[in-house]
Design brief:
12 helices, two-stranded antiparallel ribbon, 3 domains, about 325 residues, four-stranded mixed β-sheet
Length: about 325
């Protein structure tokens, strides 16, 4: 636990300091050196951001300075267990993309130094997003430069087992558990479940919509597809309105065989290339033709029925 001092804004080779953030509570999370690639680091950071948001601890919005990423990078030879005698810290990175680039840049830079039988300087560096490179800020010669100072106004916090258990019982369902439950309870695919639980607001929105959709026999798959494919925002569309939209989207109109035949003939005559493509084995061409039929009909038809009749026409 710390207090923030200021917000840094980098502009070219200069850094601007905004002291309006002074005194804002800050939590610093430090990991063990458990990562072996930039992609592993990014995956961890995304999951950490997700947990913080699910717990409503912070918005963890990097654009607004709520979250900063500071990887420590050093290299060692394969099969060597001891940690290297140096490390390079890249400070105040404000995006997952930049933290990945910074780590990959440092791996390359440090490897080139090590290949000359030298040891990279132990230092703090910054990420220059314009030049796509890290730049030296200050050196840290030894462990003394990494000292942590106790805060006299914050005494040590000690928790009993019962307090820890009580805190755990008060925690909301996190994304991993929600992901598993969505697949089991709603019979959703891994892909759909993963997208729905990515943000807690979307996951909660989906479940509220399901409460309203059950009485209309709307399936979880239909609700999930609508939210994902239509990019529905919970701020713009109430769950009840979403259900109405799904019901309307499912409604089709009937059309006489004669009228449908006229539409078919018109579309097939105007799209001979797509017809030839389908007959030559390019089966995806039928989707284009179905789209043209729907457009010509100017109303929602039963897609399954249209496809069946269209395939019969094309095979004549």
């Amino acid at each position: 636990m710390e207090e923030d001092t200021a917000k840094l804004t980098h502009q070219g080779d200069s850094s601007l300091i905004d002291f309006n953030r002074s005194g804002v509570p800050l939590v610093e999370i430090v990991t063990e050196p458990d990562f072996e690639s930039a992609k592993e680091v990014v995956e961890y950071l995304k999951r950490l951001q997700q947990i913080v948001r699910y717990l409503d601890v912070s918005d963890a919005d990097m654009e607004n300075g709520n979250m900063r990423l500071e990887p420590n990078i050093s290299l060692r030879k394969e099969n060597v267990k001891e940690l290297p005698k140096y490390k390079v810290e890249v400070k105040n990175i404000n995006s997952f993309k930049f933290v990945e680039k910074a780590i990959e840049y440092e791996i390359k830079r440090q490897m080139e130094i090590l290949e000359t039988n030298q040891i990279p300087t132990q230092e703090t560096r910054g990420w220059n997003e314009i030049k796509n490179k890290t730049i030296s800020q200050r050196t840290k010669e030894d462990a003394q430069d990494y000292r942590y100072f106790p805060e006299p106004d914050i005494p040590p916090l000690r928790f009993t087992d019962s307090q820890i258990s009580r805190l755990k019982s008060q925690m909301p369902e996190l994304a991993d558990k929600k992901f598993e439950r969505f697949m089991e309870q709603y019979d959703l695919s891994e892909y759909d479940s993963l997208l729905l639980v990515k943000e807690k607001t979307i996951a909660d929105y989906f479940e509220k919509a399901m409460l309203g959709g059950n009485k209309y026999k709307i399936t979880a798959k239909e609700v999930a597809n609508f939210i994902i494919n239509q990019k529905i925002s919970p701020d713009d569309v109430l769950p009840s309105e979403l259900i109405k939209r799904i019901i309307l989207a499912k409604q089709t109109v009937s059309i006489s065989d004669d009228d449908l035949e006229k539409i078919f003939n018109k579309v097939l005559n105007e799209n001979t290339k797509a017809v030839e493509d389908f007959k030559s084995g390019k089966t995806n061409a039928i989707m284009f033709l179905i789209g043209q039929i729907m457009k010509e009909a100017k109303q929602k038809l039963d897609t399954k029925l249209v496809r069946e009749k269209l395939e019969k026409n094309l095979k004549k």
